[in-house]
Each structure stands twice: as C-alpha cells, then as structure tokens.
Amino acid sequence: MTTSLELNHIGKVYQTRTGEVQALSHVHLSIAPRSFVSIVGPSGCGKSTVMRIIAGLEQPSTGSIKKNGANLENHRDDMAVVFQKDVLLAWRSVLDNVLFPIEIKHGKKQKKATVDKAMQLLKSVGLAGFEQKYPHELSGGMKQRVAICRALIQDPQLLLMDEPFGALDALTREQMMYDLLRLSDTYQFTTVFITHSIEEAVFLSDKVVVMSGRPGSIVKEIPSTLSRPRNGDTRKEPEFTGQVSTIRSIFQTQGILAEA
Amino acid sequence: MTTSLELNHIGKVYQTRTGEVQALSHVHLSIAPRSFVSIVGPSGCGKSTVMRIIAGLEQPSTGSIKKNGANLENHRDDMAVVFQKDVLLAWRSVLDNVLFPIEIKHGKKQKKATVDKAMQLLKSVGLAGFEQKYPHELSGGMKQRVAICRALIQDPQLLLMDEPFGALDALTREQMMYDLLRLSDTYQFTTVFITHSIEEAVFLSDKVVVMSGRPGSIVKEIPSTLSRPRNGDTRKEPEFTGQVSTIRSIFQTQGILAEA
Amino acid sequence: FLGLLAGCGNEGGSSLANPTVNADTGEIGEPEVEDITLRLNWRFKGEFAPFYVAQEKGFFEEYGLNVDVLEGNGSTSVMQTVAQGQDDLGITSTVEPAQGVEEGMPITMIATYMNSSPIMIASHPDAPVETPTDLEGKSIAMAIASTFTNIFPRFLEEENVNASEVEAVQVEASARNGLFLGKEVDAVAIFSTNELPVFEKELGYELTSLYLSEYQFDLAGLTVIGNNQFLNDNPNTAARFLAAMDEAFRYTLEHIDEAVAISAERFPDAVDEEIVREQLTLLEEIAQFDSVPFGWIAEENIAETLTILEGSGLISDKQEAEAYFTNEFFQLD
Amino acid sequence: MQSKTETTWMKQAKPKSVKRIQVPHSLWAGFTLIGFFLVWQLATMLLAIPQYLLPSPISIFTRVLSESQLLLSHALTTLAEVGLGFALSLSIGIPLAIAIVYSRYLANALYPILIAIQCIPMVSIAPILVIWFGYGLTTKILLACLISFFPIVINAVTGFRSLDKDMHDLGRSIGISEWKNFFYLRLPNALPHLFGGIKVGVTLAVVGAVVGEFVASERGLGYLQLTANARLDTPLVFATLFTLALIGMLLFGAVQLLERWIMPWYSANKAGSER
Amino acid sequence: MQSKTETTWMKQAKPKSVKRIQVPHSLWAGFTLIGFFLVWQLATMLLAIPQYLLPSPISIFTRVLSESQLLLSHALTTLAEVGLGFALSLSIGIPLAIAIVYSRYLANALYPILIAIQCIPMVSIAPILVIWFGYGLTTKILLACLISFFPIVINAVTGFRSLDKDMHDLGRSIGISEWKNFFYLRLPNALPHLFGGIKVGVTLAVVGAVVGEFVASERGLGYLQLTANARLDTPLVFATLFTLALIGMLLFGAVQLLERWIMPWYSANKAGSER
Ligand SMILES: Nc1ncnc2c1ncn2[C@@H]1O[C@H](COP(=O)(O)OP(=O)(O)OP(=O)(O)O)[C@@H](O)[C@H]1O
Ligand SMILES: Nc1ncnc2c1ncn2[C@@H]1O[C@H](COP(=O)(O)OP(=O)(O)OP(=O)(O)O)[C@@H](O)[C@H]1O
Ligand SMILES: [Mg+2]
Ligand SMILES: [Mg+2]
C-alpha cells in the first residue's frame, strides 16, 4: 500500500535574527495514494518548506500532517527526497553516492547486491562511465542526476522532488520525465514534485497545486484531465495547453509582470 | 569600450584519478563587443568549462583566448560572473553579499556609497526586505537572485552567467530577463549566457551557440534576426518560433529521445 | 586505587616493635619478609653506590634479604609512596621526614648515612665566598623551593648577613647550574656529594666551598625511612637491612674503585666513573661513624635539624625527637 | 539560533519537552560536578585517605577561601604571563600559518622546527631560556608562547587550506589579490578551525606560564605550588591547582563567548546535533 | 591531484615556471635547515659559547652518531610509551567528543574537568600519578594520554559539529539512526578537524611520555636526558632532544601520510593555494 498524505492547515514561522518570517499560512492539501502531485509557485513562496515539512525535516508551527490517517510526527521510512541543492558526499564516488542510502539502511551486503541496479540507473540518466568519478569531477546537471538516482534507488513509496530537473537541458529533462512516469507507473509510488515549469507540472501530474507568494498558501488545486499514459502527444492535447494557460493566468493575476 | 573575445580552437582535458576526461575539443568562437551570446547544449557538454575558461578560472589545455585582440592569460578586471552554484558567503548578510565585490575591490567607503544601488538592485529582483537576512534564511531561488545582484553591482564590461535563472519561476524569470536586457542596453556590456531554455536563449541573444555532447564542441552558431528591443511581442514573431524550432531540431538530431 | 590511598597506622617511631636478637650469638632473628623494596630519592648518583654494592657483593643475600633498589623522583614523592606502603623503605634527606611526620605520615627515620650535611655554597675562586658575610654584594643561585632556599633567610639572619645585599636567584636546578657555570651569578647552593665534582670537572678548576654544616646548619642527607606498619611487622627484616648496609658502606668506602666499577656496570648510560669516584670520596668525608654502625642517628643531629626547620617556618609543631627517628634496629657490638 | 528545534532529530519525537530540557542543562552539569566532589569527599572520609595524599574537597575549598587573597594575587601574576605569552603566540602563530599556507617551501622548512619545539618538553627548554633570557618575565612569556603556538599554527593551516574551491573562484572572478582573498574568504572560512586551535592553545599557555614559574620565579601560582609542595602543604598545592583550573576555564569560556560572538552565522548553518 | 595548476591564481601568470619550482621544494627546505645549523655552528664558534650552555651542532651530531645505539634503544622505550598513551588518548578522546557533541549536559559537565586537567602542568600531575599508579609503564602511558587528549577532544567536537545542515537533512531523509548518521556523515566530514587535533596530540604525547620518564623511569629518552643533565653532559642532552624531535617528526609525518591516504578527495575540493 502506498501513501496518502493529509496536510491540515499548516503554518510555518521561521525565527530569524531580524524577526519572524511567516513562510506558510494555512496550507491545506491532500495527496491521494499513488498520485503525482506537482507544486508550482513563485520563488520563495514556501514550496521547499512544504516539502521539508512533508519529509519531516521541519516541524510545522501550526497545523498537523497525517499519513494514511495517522498523525505523522516522525520520520517516514518509505520516503526518498531529491533536495533542491544536490547534497552529494564529496568523499564518495558517484556510484557510492547512489548506493549510499542502501548501504546505510541495509548494510554492505545489500549494497553489493544493488550495484547492478545502480549502474542501470546511472546509465539511464546518461552517466554511464562516470561511476567511479568524484562529485567535484561532474558538471552541475550531472550532479543533479546523481542525486535523482540516489533517491530512485531506494524504491520509495513516497518520492519528494524539489526542482529536480532545474539544471538539465530540455532533452535530458524530457527523457527523465518519461523515465519518472514509467517508474511511478511500475512501482506505484506517490510523488510530490516541485517545479518552476508549468508545462512540466501539467504534463506529469494528477494534480497541480498552485501556491501564492509570501506567506505561502494554496491558491488553486488543478486536477488533471489528461489521459494516461502521457507521451509526446500529450503536449498536443487541447487540455494540456488549456491547463498550462490557466495556471499561467493565475500567476499573472498574482504577479507583477513589468516590461522594460 | 567593451570587450570582444576570441576563443581559438580551445581544448580542455581534465586529469582525474580514473584517467583523462576530454571536456572540450576545438571550441572556436568569437564574441563581438556589446553582444549578447547564449550557449545552449546538453548537460555535461562543457558549457561551464567554456565559461570558466573565458573567466580565466581554468586554463585551456590547447588553444588560446584573445581579448580585444591581445592574448589573454590573466584575470579580467572588468568582468563579473554568476556561477552555476550560488556561492554566497554564509557569514555575510544578503546586502553584504551583494556589496562584497565593491568592498573587496574599492574599500569600505565605496561600499557605503553603493548601498543604495544594492538596495535598488535587491528590490528589482524582489528581495526588498531581505537585505539583513543571512543566506541560510533564503530559498533556493532567492539565493540565486542575490548572486545575480552581486554580479550586476560590479558594472561589468563582460558579464558571464551560468544558468542564472535555473531556480526561478516563470514570472520572476521573465521579469529578470527584461531587467537584464534593459541593463545590457543601458550599460552596453558584453554578455555570455548559459541556459537550458532554448526560448530564453533565442529571446535574449544576438547569437545562440549550440554545443554538442562530450567532448564539447560548437555545432552551430545562430545569429539572431529578431529586432530589438525585445518585448512581449518578440515571442510572437515568426522568426522567434523559427529559431527555437531550428535549435530544437539540432538537439533532436544529436540526442536520443526515447519515450516510455 | 582509592583503597591504595588509605593510610596505615599513624604511630611515632618509639613505639615500634623491637627486633629479636639471639643473646648469645648476637644474630638477628629470622626475617619476617625477605623481598623488600628500597626507593631512592633520585636517579643514580655516587652516594647511592653502597646500595648497589650491597646487592652486587651479596651483603643483602648474606642477611637473607632480597632488596629491590629502585630509582625515584625526589624525597617528597618517596615519602608519600613509603607512607602509603607502596614501597617499604625509602631514601630521603632528614628535612622531608621531619615535615612528613608532622603531616601525620606513618614513617620513621631508621638510619642516616651522612652525619654531616653535604649542603654547601660553591663559588668561583675569583669571587670567593668563604664566609657567610662574603655573600654581601654577590648573587647566589639556588634551586627553586629547595631545602636550601627555605632555610637560607634564617641562615643569613643567624650569621648576621644583610639579606638585602644578597641577590638570591631562585631557579630550577639545571638553570641554576647554567647560571653559575656561565658566571651569571657568583655563587651557587649545591650538594658536595653530587654537583661539586661535576662542576669542578666541567670548569677544570677547584671551587671555593662553604659548608653550611660548619655554621650549625647541619641538615643530614641520605636518610633511610621506613613505613611504620612495615617496621612494626618486620623488625628483624629492618634490622637485617641495616646490618647489611653497615657492611656495604664499610666495604664501599674501602673499595671505592670497585664500587665505581659496579656502578658503571649497573648504569652504563648514566655513570661518569671519574665523577662517581669523586662523589664517593666526598661522601667518605661526611659519613663519619666511629664506634657506631654506619647509619647510626645522632639525636642532637635530629634536634638541630628540627630547630632549624622550626626557625625557618618549615614545621610549626615540633614534637620530641623520638617521634621522628629510632635507632632500635641497629645492633651495637 | 532559535531555530534549534529544526536541527535536532531526536527532539522532534517530543517537541513539547524541549522547553523543559532547556533550562536545567547547565544546572545538571553543576550537579554532576557537585556529585563528583561529594564522592571525592566521601572517599577521603570513608577510606580515611590521609591529607598528604589527597586532601578532601572541603579542606581544599576552605583553603581556597581562607587564602583567596594570596591565591588571587599570585593568579594575577600568572594570568598576566599567560595573556602576554598567548598574545605573542597568536601574533607569531597566525602569520606563520599564513606563510606555511602560501609557501610549500616555508612549510617544508618550518614544520621540522615547529615539531621539534613542540616535542621537546617545556621543562627541558625552560632552563636554556632562563640562561638566555634571564629569570624575569620574558622567560615565562616565551614559554607560554612556545607551548601554545603549535596547536594554533596547525589548526590555522588546516583552516586556511579548507576554503572551498568555489569560493576561491568567486574571489578570483572578482579579480582581487590573493591577499584580500585571504582576509575576506580564507580567514572567515577558517574561523571554526582557528577557534579550535585557540581553545587548545590558551589552556596550554597556562601550562607554559606555570612551568616557567617552576623554573624561575618569585611569584605566580607555579611558584606558590612549589613552595607549598616544599612545605608538604598538600591542601595549598591542591588549592593552587584548583585556581589554575579556574583560570583555564575562564580563558576557555572567554574564547567560547568570543567564538559565538564572531561567528553567529555558524551554528545556524551546521547540524550541531544536541545543542 | 594533478589539477593543481587550476587552483593557484598566482601560478597562472607564468604557467611555464610551474615545473621548475616543483622539484626543489623539499630540497630548499633542507638547505634552509642546513643554513640554520650553519649559523648555529658559527655562533658557537665565533661567540665562543661554552659547550655546557649550547653545544655546537657538530658536537651534537657526532654525539648522535657515536651514541646512536644508545639513543635508539632509549628511543624505542619512549616510542612505545607514546604509542600506547596516544592510542589510549584516541580511544578515550573520540568517544568523549561524541558524548559531548550529543549531550549538552555532558558537554557542560565534562568540559570543566577536561580544562582542569589540561591547565595543570603534567609535571604537577606526574608525582600524583606516581603515588597512585606507581613508577611503572602505566604512569607514563597515562601522562602521554592525559596531555594529548584535550586537543583531540576539542578538535573532534568542532569537527563533529561542523556537519552542514543539508547533509544532516540528507541523512534524516533516508531515515537512518543518528548513530549511522554519525559514522557515515559526521565522521568523514570531521576528518580534517580530527587530523588537525591528532597532529597536535601526537606530538604532545611525546612530551607526556618524556615528562613521565623524568618522574619515574629507568629507561627512555627522558631518563637519558635527566642523567646526562646531572653529569652536565650537555651534548648528550641535546642529542637526546634531537632524537625526541626526530621522533616527533616521524609521528607527524606518519599522520600526514595517513591523512592524504584517507582523504584523497579533500584537497581536490579545496583551494589549498600554494601546494
Ligand atoms: N531556515 C530558514 N530560516 C529563515 N527563513 C527561511 C528559512 N528557510 C526558508 N525561509 C524563508 O521561507 C520562505 C520560503 O522558503 P522556501 O525555501 O520554502 O521557498 P521556495 O518556494 O522553495 O522557493 P524557491 O523556489 O526559490 O526555492 C522564504 O521567504 C525564505 O526566506
Ligand atoms: N574539475 C573537473 N575534473 C574532472 N572533470 C571535470 C571537472 N569539471 C568538469 N568536468 C567534466 O567536464 C565535462 C564538462 O563539464 P561542465 O561542467 O563544463 O558541463 P556543463 O556543460 O556545464 O554541464 P551542466 O549543464 O550539467 O552544468 C563533464 O563531463 C565533467 O564531468
Ligand atoms: Mg525551494
Ligand atoms: Mg554547468
């Protein structure tokens, strides 16, 4: 069984030297099992904060979070996170970085048994031949891909991704979107996906959550009417462009778009 | 006078523990004074390496680089860089991070005199009110914007930007594109701009340079036929969509685009 | 280890059990224990040679003892380990046990092999200090916080020396030596049995000496102390030890060359034969025991020590001399 | 600073208890110390450990109180030596570390000498210093300096070398001299290492000054200890040691306060676990 | 490692001279040391410094050579004490540092005691240890341990606390115990700090062992020095000190090699400037 999540009117206040910062206010959201939910919103609106709260890395200041109906305060076992900043371990090779969660959770033996899978994953993101390199020998996008592999190798029930494709070129990005869809289809995990690309969000998701600027809150939830599986043709469906422009217009009504 | 740059058949080989990596081979490129040049290409193709070589942070293994006709081996005074990874100083407030280059180049007094300009810049990227925060109190996109401010405050003759808008949402990104165009128009600096967004590249540039995968080399240079100034209507010009699809097709012929 | 720290009984010397002696043969009764330890108060120096001679020439064995002679680190620490029972017997000067007994340490002096003090003031012959008044206008180096340093003000006072005209330099021992040898100071307080021959050898000329013992400042050195409990339980062993040492001293002073050779063999890394020979010669001068066994403690000697210490403020609560020492373990012929 | 809660994994399980735990932290530590002294007191009483071996805490404390005037005046002497010696140590050690960082040649030439100085006990060096520099203040200052500057140099070198390449590149891209690069990047970046070295160094400086007093002095806690020792006044010896320890804690605490004051940004960026 | 050239800003100006400078680095250092000894030799000769104050390097070296057998055998004794003491120090210091990192309470309770031990000169502690633990090996091992473990603890604590929040979050997101988090993240991340502490600690351990030998021993370089001193055999004293310095350099060098071997990734990520 995979994970259903329930965020109940979550608020988050950061204490800083120069006063409090209200990052989130009344974020209310439910994430169905096996669904793919994307979060879009202006930079600094609190997307990462929502994700960190779901991941249990941050405590909400107000409100609560329920998993499969039960109050969730502690770590989630069956979860994997791709952070906004690729946190690779400088002292481990690419392969060892990918295998890090396995080694740490299941020991050296299981790590050995998982090497093939890791190689496979690395190959699928275009990093074949880079297994023995160290992080500092990689380009920015390569590091991001390693971080994605590190999350996927855990076979999570809940996958949290914070702008995972930000540093990737259009082609690689598209390739990885397809891969991600295939995997979530195969393993039926729940995905929370933060992105700045409205197209990406619409293309991938069962539900797109649009957040407003500080203090972050949810302005609109847009369930997808697009058919599955998604493929090259999905982009050509009128619903696709329709949803994209809906979201764009929500943004436009909120934001200020000034021209020189 | 601003900068004209000439890259002569530059090659770059990285020495690693596990052998040599040929990152660039025969990169030949000239950048006209006051022009805006974008570099696009698959992740890991050597875009950052090219930029680091232009910046003088890396020595080319073969080939040479000329500035205004003279051989260029050392630092470039009139240059500012936005790195792929926002390297903010953890021990300085946002404002002090932005003013860092001024303080370090021209002393405390000049720093004081530049505070207003820095505040202005921060405001223009939507960070008003965050001047006294520390980097760890910012979101990913906010950090990136601080790094951009830090580059712009230097009034460079040559601005090098490595995926500067990667962590920004569509709206902020568009806003910043307009700001950048306005600035480069006002101050007439030369810009080298690395991006993964083909639209962005076409929209901004006088010339788009398309690079191929490892070892990186230039496949095509596409001079822009779009009129200036660029604005909301530019995207609707047929040349715009034409160039975008040209580049996309170049990518497609190189890359492998598999669907689930 | 806290248990180790618990002290033993705290009784004065006079109440110790006496050794049993066969009235006919004069032979001391069977030793209660045979294996005992003797803790010296420093690394090897010439005056310790008799203890090693006793080992090597079999004097201990002759008395049925097996004595482990161990090097140590200063009288205070020797006293503490003896008081605590880690070591059975120890070597100190007379000063520290006098203080220790006052502090309640369960120890007693049972022998002292120098009945005259080796403490002296040496000076370069070109600026000689022959009498205490010669010190006026001169500088003298002394080991910091040493016995000499503590009694020095009283010494000056007793000898009517104007203390304000004497520059007393308190430094650590090797710095003291350096200062004197480099003539940074005029005089130095040392032991005749230890540093004097070393200095003279180094400088190549004889130094002017002033012995404190000649001015009623006779603080004897090379004193054997014992743990009270040990002495009380093993009087025969203690008596046998002293008897063996009597012979060993006699033998050593009669066969200085052999004693030097024995020392050199035992401590190849630490012994300069010439210096040891000289040290033993000087020891002979201040170890005068006529008609009594070597080590016999003269009561007036102890009393004098106590007076000096009291006068110098080193002890405040002087007890009867018998509280500090005993001659009970000597066998008079 | 107040975002503490976020860093602690363990605390998250019971976020309500955070407040309760916070207050008595230092109190508990105090209790532990008191407990320690209590055990010591009981041990000396029950096992009848004689005073000359190990005085009871009460006798030490009463001695500290009754002799507080004496201890304070000697402590001030020692403190002055420590202060001067440590200042000297910093003003030699940091430039030396900079020299070592920037010159492999100097690193190779200086390290052997530094290590030699470090490996030779101060008690061996002290007499030589007395002969060269006299038995005055200089010798003690030099000893405090000599003993404390190795940890400062080593930690400073490690710290200065720990600058991330990215940051160094940033400095280079701005086009500043390596000199400014040092002050604006290397130095702030090295602060955690530096403070580690300073904490070790300042306590060692106390040792150096005291050893100096052992060797040549007429004042100071080292001298007091020696004379007390010569008198077999063990409680006073321990009272002196206690005062020394107090000085050390004061200096250490001062450094720690300074550290928090200079690096307020630091703890917020680090997962200091239980803090 | 071979990408050295990229890190150095200054080198870039004249990339051709890199090769020329590279080779003689350590040679130059050697020359400097030789120069140092030359000056010393000349000073003793020209200023006619008497041997008992400062022997000439030549007389020291000839003594080192002629007594090499003796020095070696005593050095081995000392080395054994250092080794055991330092091993003990590590095996107490690191767990203690972990305890301090994870418990503010322990930090508060332990730091005062640690600082107290650190501030009291070993020469003062040594006699007490002799009383408790006797004149044997234990005392010397304990001294080597006591003197060296403060820098280890302090540096380890600083190091363990220096884990980036991001990395800690990564560990937490994987859902591992803080225990594994420690071994897989905190520990490797703290290595540069740890090695800084170990370098200071190991040289201090030499001092501790020698001080122990001053107080209680019949072998070892400290003993040798003491007896040589008593005979005013100053060249032998200096020969002993020289051997001590040599031991220190050996140990320090070994630690540095170990560091390079364990942290090959480190220097590549850091702008170590001239290296
Ligand atoms: N540790 C912190 N301390 C104080 N304020 C914080 C902290 N982390 C985030 N914030 C603030 O909370 C708000 C939301 O931050 P968050 O990182 O969640 O934004 P985001 O939506 O992920 O933005 P981006 O798209 O730029 O990554 C911001 O205003 C930020 O300044
Ligand atoms: N320091 C280094 N050591 C070894 N190899 C390196 C180093 N830096 C980059 N490389 C290699 O050089 C190639 C180009 O890297 P570069 O960072 O220039 O790519 P990029 O085009 O910027 O990619 P991205 O879009 O992912 O940032 C990659 O294959 C990378 O592995
Ligand atoms: Mg974010
Ligand atoms: Mg890049």
Short description, anyone?
The complex is a heteropentamer, with 2 copies of chain A (260 residues), 1 copy of chain C (333 residues) and 2 copies of chain D (275 residues). Chain A has 260 residues and is an alpha/beta fold.
Main attributes of the structure:
heteropentamer, A: about 260 residues, alpha/beta, six-stranded mixed β-sheet, four-stranded antiparallel β-sheet, 6 helices, about 35% helix, C: about 325 residues, five-stranded mixed β-sheet, 10 strands, about 15% strand, globular, disordered N terminus, binds adenosine-5'-triphosphate, binds magnesium ion, ABC transporter permease (chains D, E), MetI-like_sf (chains D, E), transmembrane helix (chains D, E)
What is the rounded distance between the termini of chain C?
A: 44 Å
Which assembly state applies to the chains in this document?
A: heteropentamer
Number of helices of chain D: 14
Shape of chain C: globular
- Which two chains touch over the largest interface? D-E, 83 and 83 residues
User: From the helix content, strand content and strand pairing of chain C, which structural class follows?
Assistant: alpha/beta
**Beta-strand residue percentage of chain C:** 5-15%
Count the beta strands of chain C: 10
Distance between the termini of chain D: 10 Å
Largest sheet of chain D: none
Q: Determine the mean pLDDT of chain C.
A: 86
Number of distinct beta strands of chain D:
0
Small-molecule binders? adenosine-5'-triphosphate, magnesium ion
Identify low-pLDDT runs of chain D.
Answer: 1-21
Strand content of chain D: under 5%
Mean pLDDT across all amino acids of chain D: 84
- C-alpha geometry of chain D: globular
- Main β-sheet description of chain C: 5 strands, mixed
Secondary structure category of chain D: mainly alpha
Order of secondary-structure elements of chain C:
HEHHEHEHEEEHEHEHEEHHHHH
Strand order in space, largest sheet of chain C: 2-1-3-10-4
Topology overview:
The complex is a heteropentamer, with two copies of chain A (260 residues), one copy of chain C (333 residues) and two copies of chain D (275 residues).
Chain A: E1 5-16, E2 19-31, E3 36-40, H1 47-54, E4 62-67, E5 70-71, E6 79-82, H2 94-124, H3 140-152, E7 158-162, H4 170-187, E8 190-194, H5 198-204, E9 207-211, E10 218-223, H6 238-254
Parallel strand pairs in A: 3-8, 3-9, 6-7, 7-8
Antiparallel strand pairs in A: 1-2, 1-4, 4-5, 9-10
Helix pairs in contact in A: 2-3, 5-6
Chain C: H1 2-5, E1 35-39, H2 49-56, H3 59-62, E2 66-70, H4 75-84, E3 89-92, H5 95-102, E4 107-112, E5 119-123, E6 139-143, H6 147-158, E7 167-171, H7 173-181, E8 187-191, H8 195-203, E9 208-211, E10 223-227, H9 228-233, H10 235-254, H11 256-266, H12 273-286, H13 299-311
Parallel strand pairs in C: 1-2, 1-3, 6-7, 6-8
Antiparallel strand pairs in C: 3-10, 4-10, 5-8, 5-9
Chain D: H1 4-7, H2 9-12, H3 18-22, H4 25-46, H5 57-66, H6 68-102, H7 104-119, H8 122-133, H9 137-161, H10 165-174, H11 178-215, H12 221-230, H13 234-262, H14 264-269
Helix pairs in contact in D: 5-13, 6-7, 6-9, 6-11, 6-12, 6-13, 8-9, 8-11, 9-11, 10-11, 11-12, 11-13, 12-13
One adenosine-5'-triphosphate sits between chains B (14, 16, 21, 23, 41, 43-49, 84, 214) and A (136-142, 167).
